[in-house]
Structure formats: structure tokens, C-alpha cells
Specification:
This protein is of the alpha+beta class and about 450 residues long. It has 2 domains: about 100 residues, Rieske [2Fe-2S] iron-sulphur domain (Rieske Iron-sulfur Protein), CATH 2.102.10.10; about 280 residues, Alpha-Beta Complex (Naphthalene 1,2-dioxygenase Alpha Subunit, Chain A, domain 1). Helix content is about 30%, strand content about 25%. The chain is built from 15 helices and 22 strands. The chain has a 9-stranded antiparallel β-sheet with strand order 13-19-18-17-16-15-14-22-21. Helix 5 packs across helix 10 and helix 9 packs antiparallel against helix 10. The chain is globular and about 75 Å long. Bound molecules: benzamide, FE2/S2 (inorganic) cluster and fe (iii) ion. The site of benzamide has 11 residues, from helix 6, strand 15 and strand 16.
Length: about 450
């Protein structure tokens, strides 16, 4: 990539002004570049350890446009392979999940062990005359695999920072629900469906859009009677101190709605969930203090850059898998706390599908907007215009009690700006080294904003 084209990429996002070119949500060339520079370099969610507990357990998933097999090994480590046969390139494993000693290709019958070694080649001696070097035809292994409190991520770039460093300041917030809660399980397999939207549109919504909740979700709020019900129809603003926004160096961000542990769950869930959450909170308060423990009993909406979103309390865990500029495959898991009784876990799993599953009454209200915004970005005139993420611009600050950069209200666009600031550095750089140079002054970049630039 030449310098001038890197600069052109950087122009898609104006950090000082808090705007992005609408084109970013519907553009073939940019999408191709993202697959290389965003999905080729970031840590991508693969699976949870609890989905593949035993040797030979596997799942198949995607890393950008590449399909991979994630397999538990005999020594309990996890390996990730391209799901592509080394002979003529057919998809090797055609099932979503299972347990196997190995994988046999559908085309000519080459077979591989769970460790990726090419083991069997039909009529090997007769047809290859012992000239096939099987050692050179193992499955292609993905460079990096790491687990964070049981959540397994992979990265295609050998030069990327370690997962812990990639999460950076954001890990402090993840630790509360992923670790201090006693641990999380995901209930799989994930529900899957396609939406006609760009992968960044739901990612940015979850990273920090509390603004749309009272308006877009009026119907869900009125019918579901969740703890958010008073927001319905934008008749009430969350009061001062009701929430917080956070962004971080590598684009991860979240929004907090304090003390709203039961989240989007309907009225039938609230009493039991709140009782559960408050009992655990009492213990965590002793251990962590009020300020930190409070985040456990609060509702967090967030995105781990680039495409892995969550709603704690609501129990929603998502991956937005890119296929085409305006075609995204949505994976939805229910997440539950490990020590919850089975009966409560089952009720949460069903509630997650009712609210944010394929036909969930929250999810489908969002999808109209996601698809519309992505579609409009294809307009010849419209794509040259900019999207506005200026809410709270100039008011972001560092807080001794909260890592990262903070926006001090429930509703704002602090984490949109942080997400696209890092996105800009990724798509306009030729290596992680260059990304890190550009991102070094990320706080100054973000707090120096003015909406009249
Ligand atoms: O971003 C969201 N989807 C969300 C945020 C949902 C509920 C509350 C806050
Ligand atoms: Fe937000 Fe129109 S009011 S997209
Ligand atoms: Fe929504």
C-alpha cells in the first residue's frame, strides 16, 4: 500500500470533527481492504472453552472470509486450522460442531488427524509412488490462539500484540463479568442468520448506542416490560448519573446503564434475575468495593473490536461475521453465569432467543435501521456525505476510577468515536508497528475534538 492511498484511507474518518464518511458502510473496495487490514490483524472471537471441553471436540467458524476449524487437542490446548483440504481446496469439515479423531475430505478422501497432520491418502503408494511428502501437507494452522477467561480468540497476524495487550484498558471491564462473576458459559450452538447490513453497523450500535433504545425499541419496551420500560417512546431521559460510556486505545468500547442487571429480559424474568444479581453483588461489594462491584449489577452494552458484541445482564453475546459489504452473518449465543442453577440458565437461554435471537423482538427492531443505513451508503451522492457521531464531543475525559477514556452520561457517542479512531489507524497502516505509532496519542486525538472543524 502506497503512502498516498494510506492517507486517503485515513480521510474516511475525521476524528477531530467526530464524523465518518457514509461510504464506509457500503463499498466493495473498502470491504476487501478491511478483510486484509482489520480481519487479517485483529483478535477475532472463535468459541468458548466450554463448547469444546474434550479432546477431539471441534467447532467451525469464520475469521473474516476464511473458514476455520477450532479443535481441542489431546494435551487440552486448542488449535485452529483453515477448513480447507490441502489437495484441491474443498471445505474439509462440513458440520458446525462435533467430536472427531480427524477429518476426511469429501472429494478424494484425504484424511487429517485432529492435530492437522495429513494421515491418509487413498492408494498413496500406487498413485504417488511414495513421492508425496505428507509432512508438507498438514492443514494450514492459524498463527495465534489465546483464551481470556474461557473466551477463545484467534489472530491471523503473527505481529499483533498479545490478546491481553490488545484488550488493554478494556480488560478491567471485561474482568468484572467474565471473571469476578465466577465465570461465564456460552450456550451454543449459536443461532445464525443473515442481515443485509454492513458488519460495522451493528458493531458500532453495540459499542455505544444507548440513544436509540427509548425510540427504536418503543414497541419492545412497551410489550416486554423490562427494567428499561420507562424509556419507551423517549418520554423519559435516563437521569443524570444513570450511566457512563467508555472507549479504549484499540477501539473496544461500552456503555453502562447502572443497576439495570435484568437488562432487556421481560417482566417474567425480572424478579428472579434481580434476586440472583443482588445476592452475588453483596459478596462482590465486600471484595471489590462499591464502585467496581456496581458494574456487575449494571447493564453493559459493548463491542470488542472489531465485531464481537455483548449485552451483560441481558445475556446476549454476538459475532457479526462479514460476507459482503452489505451481507453479514449474525451469530447469537446466550451467556449465563457458571454458578447459576440449570433452571435459571435455561430460562435465560430462551429469553435471549426471544429478545435478541433470529426473530427476537429487540433484534428485528434494530435490523430495519441496520439495513437501511447500509443500503443508503450505496447512493452516489450520499456516500460522499458524512455520518455524525458528535454527541458529547469535547466532553470526554480520563477518570482515576475508570480505565480508558470516559464520557460522563448514559447517552452519547464517545465509544463510536473511539471505535472509528482505531479503525482509521488500522486501515491506513501497513503493519502493527505503524498502527501502534499512530495510536500512541489516542487520548489527545479524541479529547481534542470540536464539532465545528
Ligand atoms: O446497544 C444496545 N443494543 C443496547 C444498549 C440495548 C439495551 C440497552 C442499552
Ligand atoms: Fe439517527 Fe436518523 S435519527 S439515523
Ligand atoms: Fe437496539
Amino acid at each position: 500500500m502506497t503512502k498516498s492511498s494510506n492517507e486517503k484511507m485515513a480521510d474516511l474518518v475525521n476524528v477531530k470533527a467526530g464524523v465518518q464518511k457514509h461510504q464506509i458502510h457500503n463499498d466493495e473496495a473498502l470491504f476487501a481492504l478491511e478483510m486484509e487490514k482489520v480481519f487479517g490483524r485483529s483478535w477475532l472471537f472463535l468459541t468458548h472453552e466450554c463448547s469444546i471441553p474434550n479432546a477431539g471436540d471441534y467447532i467451525t467458524t469464520r475469521m473474516g472470509l476464511d473458514e476455520v476449524i477450532v479443535v481441542r487437542q489431546k494435551d487440552q490446548s486448542i488449535k485452529v486450522f483453515l477448513n480447507v483440504c490441502r489437495h484441491r481446496g474443498v471445505r474439509l469439515c462440513v458440520t458446525d460442531a462435533g467430536n472427531a479423531r480427524g477429518f476426511v475430505c469429501n472429494y478424494h478422501g484425504w484424511s487429517y488427524g485432529a492435530n492437522g497432520d495429513l494421515q491418509g491418502v487413498p492408494f498413496e503408494e500406487a498413485v504417488y509412488k511414495n513421492r508425496l511428502d505428507k509432512c508438507k501437507n498438514s492443514l494450514h494452522e492459524i498463527a495465534r490462539v489465546e483464551s481470556y477467561h474461557g473466551f477463545v480468540y484467534g489472530c491471523l497476524d503473527p505481529d499483533a500484540p498479545d490478546l491481553k495487550d490488545y484488550l488493554g484498558d478494556f480488560a478491567w471491564y471485561l474482568d468484572i463479568w467474565m471473571e469476578e462473576s465466577g465465570g461465564i458459559e456460552l450456550i451454543g450452538p449459536p443461532a445464525r442468520c443473515f442481515i443485509h447490513a454492513n458488519w460495522k453497523v451493528p458493531s458500532e450500535n453495540f459499542v455505544g448506542d444507548a440513544y436509540h433504545v427509548g425510540w427504536t425499541h418503543t414497541s419492545a419496551l412497551r410489550s416486554g416490560q423490562s427494567v428499561f420500560a420507562p424509556l419507551a417512546g423517549n418520554t423519559a431521559l435516563p437521569p443524570e448519573g444513570a450511566g457512563l460510556q467508555v472507549t479504549s486505545k484499540y477501539g473496544h468500547g461500552l456503555g453502562v446503564l447502572f443497576d439495570a442487571y435484568a437488562g432487556v429480559n421481560g417482566a417474567e424474568m425480572i424478579e428472579d434475575l434481580m434476586a440472583w444479581g443482588m445476592a452475588k453483588y453483596a459478596k462482590l461489594e465486600k471484595k471489590l468495593g462499591e464502585k467496581r462491584a456496581r458494574l456487575y449489577k449494571s447493564h453493559l452494552n459493548g463491542t470488542i473490536f472489531p465485531n464481537n458484541s455483548f449485552l451483560t445482564g441481558s445475556g446476549v453475546f454476538k459475532v457479526w461475521q462479514p460476507h459482503e459489504p452489505t451481507k453479514t452473518e449474525v451469530y447469537t449465543w446466550a451467556m449465563v453465569e457458571k454458578d447459576m442453577p440449570d433452571e435459571l440458565k435455561e430460562r435465560i437461554a430462551k429469553s435471549v432467543q426471544r429478545t435478541f435471537g433470529i426473530a427476537g423482538y429487540w433484534e428485528s427492531e434494530d435490523n430495519d435501521n441496520m439495513e437501511s443505513e447500509s443500503h443508503m451508503a450505496g447512493g452516489t451522492i450520499a456516500k460522499e456525505k458524512v455520518l455524525n457521531a458528535q454527541m458529547g464531543l469535547g466532553g470526554d475525559f480520563q477518570d482515576p476510577d475508570y480505565p480508558g477514556l470516559v464520557g460522563e452520561s448514559a447517552i452519547g457517542e464517545t465509544s463510536y468515536r473511539g471505535y472509528y479512531r482505531f479503525y482509521r489507524d488500522l486501515i491506513s497502516s501497513s503493519s502493527w508497528e505503524e498502527v501502534n505509532e499512530k495510536s500512541e496519542n489516542w487520548v489527545e486525538d479524541l479529547i481534542g475534538g470540536k464539532s465545528n472543524v
